[in-house]
Amino acid sequence: MKLSRLILTAVLVGTSVTGTMLPSQVAAKTLEEKKKERPVEVMSERVGKKVAEAIDLLTANEEEGREADPKGAIKLLEEIEPKKEFDKAYLAQLIGKLYAQEGEYKKAIDKIKYAAELDVLSWDDQAGVLKVLAVLSLQEEQYQDAIDYYGKWFQFTEEHDPSIYTHLALSYYQLKNYKKTVEQADLAIKYAKEPKADPYQLKMSAFVDTKNYKEAIKVCVAAIKHFPEDKKWWVPLAQFYLMEEDYARALSTFELSDKQGFLTKPAHYTTLAQLYSMYGIPYKAATTMQKHMNSGLIEKDAKNLSVAANYFHQASEYKKAADTYLAAAKISKDPEHYRKVGDLLAIAEEYKSAVNAYEKAIELGSQKEANIKVALIEAHFYLGNYKKAYSYARESLKNKQYKRMAQGWIGYIRDTAQRKNVDI
C-alpha cells in the first residue's frame, strides 16, 4: 500500500504529530536524562558551507530566472567527503530525504539507515530519521522493516503517536497478523486527540478477513458514533448483520442507509427488497424493486421483473403481479411467465386476458400444459364459453392427476349449460 505523497512529504520535511509522553513520572525523568545525555554537535565549517550551497539550489530564484534543482543539490552533497561522524550522519539523512522527495526510495532508505546507525544526531533529528525510515519502508511495502523502525522510534522517544500506531496497524494487516492489527488500531484510537477513521477501518478489515462479523459489527457501531455521516460504515454494518442472520437489524440499518442516500448499488436495493419480503412487507419489496428498475439502477430484465412480480403476488396485488410477469414474459419468452400471468389474472377474475396468457404459454411449449388446460376449463366457464370449457374438461380426463377434477367439471358444465340452454 503506497502512502500519499502529501503524508510522505510532511514526514520528510519534519512535520510530525505531537506525541503524548508516557504519564509515568519515572519514565519522563528517564527520558529527560536520555535527552540530556544526547550529544549536541554542529557541522564543521567546510561541510556547513557546502550544505548552504545545496540548500540554495533547492530554492527557486525568480530574479535570476533559476528553478529549484534538487538533483544538483544531491550531486553537490554526494561529492562532499566528511570526516566527522556527525557530518557523515547529517549529510546522509539530508541526502536521503532529498532522494525520497525525488521518488528514489531505495537510495533514500540506504542513506537514512546509515545516518540512523551512526546514532550521533541530535535528539529530534535521530527521532526523525527513525520515523522516516519506517515511513519509507511502508512506502516500499517492506512491512516488517516498517514495524521494526517504528519499534526503534518508540523505544527512543517513548511517545504515543496515534498516526504511528495506525501505520503499525496497517503494516501488521498487510502481513496478515490480524491480532496485532487490532491491538495497534486500538492504541491509535485510544491516543487520538480527535477520532480518525483509518484505525476503525483497519480494525474492521482485520475482523472481516477472519470472518469475525460480531466484532466487525462492534467496530462499525463505534465508528458510526464518531462518523455518522460517512456511508462507508452503514452498508457494511447492514451486511454484517446479514452475515450474523440478524435480519431485523439488517433491515433497519439498510432502511437508515437508504434514507441518508447511502445505498448506491443494485445489490443494496435487491437485498433491501428481500428483507422487506422476509418481514412480511412484500408490497414495499415490490415497489422498491419497481422504483429502482424504473430509475435504471436495477436492470429491468426478466429475472428482476419476475422477482418484483412475485413480491406483488405475495402482497395480493394480483393485477400488478400479472402486469409485471407479463413484462418479464415479453423479454424472456418463457412459457412459465405466461402461465403465471394467466393464474394471476384468473384470481383477479380477468378471465379473457387470462385465457390469452394461458394459450400463449401452451404455444411456447409449456411443460405444464396439463395444468394450464385445467385452468382454461375454469377461465372459459366463467366467460360463459361452456363449449370450450367442456372441451378442455374432456381433454383433461386423459390425465390421471386431473381426471377426478375434470369429471367434476364435466358434470357442472353440463348442468349449467342445460340450465342456460347452451349447446355444448
TrEMBL record:
SUPFAM superfamilies: TPR-like. It comes from the Bacteria. TPR repeats lie at residues 89-122, 335-368. Keywords: Repeat, TPR repeat. This is Uncharacterized protein. It comes from Catenovulum agarivorans DS-2.
